Amino acid sequence: MGVGVESAVGKISTDLFDAAAGALFIPYWDFWSGEIGGLRRHELARLVEAQWLDNSRHELSQVLGFAWYAHQHAPYYHRRGPAPTTMDEFGKMPILTKDDIRAHGGEMFSDEYKPAELAHSKTGGSTGVALNVFCDRVCQQYRNAAALRSDLWSGWKLGETRGALWGNPPIPIGLKARARSLLFDRLVFLDTIEINADSMDAFIGHLLARNVRTLYGHAHSLFVFANHVAARGGAGLGIRSIISTSMILLPAERARIEQVFGCKVTDRYGCEEVSLIASECERHEGLHVNSDHVYLEVLRPDGTPADPGEEGAVVVTEYINHGQPLLRYAVGDVTVRLGRDCGCGRRRPLLERVIGRTADFLVKSDGSLVAGVSLVERTLTAIPGLAQMQIIQENVGELVINVVPDEKFTPESEARLEAEMRRAFGEVKVRINKGDRLQQEKNGKYRFAICRVPTRYQEAAR
Question: What SS3 state is found at 327?
């Protein structure tokens, strides 16, 4: 059989399998998962229909109802006084910070849930500061549904395999996990901890074998991969949609990615604490706020609402998370709200852009790169005793790790930290500095990774 015929047969069989996954495997998995699995499917259908409707009044009603719920069921809010009865009163509530969550997170649990019933995640975020957050299982499914709706906006179709450029990809263990990976999750991973020529070549092979049409991942990882694909002559991947998330997408990076793959990039904004906040649609005229689940405020330093076109701090209330309500949570980012509608006709507020710092890549001795966001995230999650950490690379083969330890930090933690760096970089000199705080930038934020070794990617992104 000729190569062209084999390729055509492989494409047809992959298309049929994708169609079967969307029409049969995924709905059956939801059904088999019981009531919780069905919630995701039903919420996705509701979100797809609701996106064309004006939900502003419903949103405000939901916010006030959620605030009442938090004051009734979470001790942290109950002791702070009565629940707001108007949006003006809601807007005068204290801003919730990451330090508040670290100090009082358990008091934010609803008394209607046992801690074991809540889904837990630990994030280092872009600041390198560990944070534990929780949500109820219904909220978790609603979050999944919102992410799927934004995936559909990119051109992806339910059931199609996606290529994911991400750190710490899950490894399916056991028959059930492998079946879920094949029939439900439908993902092919490039681990951004090991992003080099060999790993990217292998990733290209997997994309071609699975006829993958959609990529998603860290903005800068997509940019690095696009440059690699271009160096390989384009690879004939046939990508038709790309979803960028987790990091700031620079205009130069967007242009390069779109040039290499010949399709638009859909930028998406969210965080671990509240999941999806906003996403571009197919028109790419701004990011639609996920106001079906999230009430977003853009505030000046004095706490007053910023005008359209004016920079302001992002403060969110995810009014679907009853397990650990977070009222007026300061994400730590800065954004600009638009004062117009999108040409797509969806009735959702728009953000012009999210202003923040691009994560630095760190350089290994062989010239390959390590995504700082992935490395810090993995290290904070894996090693007890790290409250904050920052990686500084002045020269190839030498790392300075600034650590703010907590009460669980031991000599073993320090040894594991050094081992983690050597696992990522090979033979490297590691110097660990312990202190009670990390030096902040002028804007008050921390950088989790600072690389002062020039790379071609840094030059190309300027």
Answer: coil
Residue at 433 is within a domain: yes
127-140 mean pLDDT:
84
| H-helix segments, 169-299 | 175-180, 197-209, 219-231, 251-261
For residue 233, give the 3-state DSSP assignment.
coil
The DSSP output letter for 160 is -
Question: pLDDT, tens digit, for every residue of 153-179?
Answer: 999 988 888 999 988 766 656 665 555
Describe the crossing of helices 197-209 and 219-231 by its angle, rounded to 10 degrees: 90
**Residue-number span of the structural domain to which 429 is assigned:** 361-461
Provide the whole-model pTM: 0.75
Query: The domain that contains 444 carries what CATH number?
Result: 3.30.300.30
Tell me which amino acid residue 329 is: Y
What's the structural domain count of the chain? 1
Domain contains 106: no
**What is the number of H-type helices and E-type strands within the chain?**
15, 19
Who contacts 304 (Cβ-Cβ below 8 Å, separation ≥6)? none
CB distance 315 to 328 below 8 Å: yes
Does residue 382 form part of some domain? yes
Burial of 325 from C-beta contacts in 10 A (0-12 / 13-18 / 19+): buried
Q: Which is it for the CA torsion 337, 340, 346, 352, positive or negative? A: negative
Residue pLDDT, tens place only, 299-345: 998 899 999 999 888 999 999 999 999 999 998 888 899 999 999 99
Contacts of 183 (CB under 8 A, 6+ apart): 21, 25, 26, 29
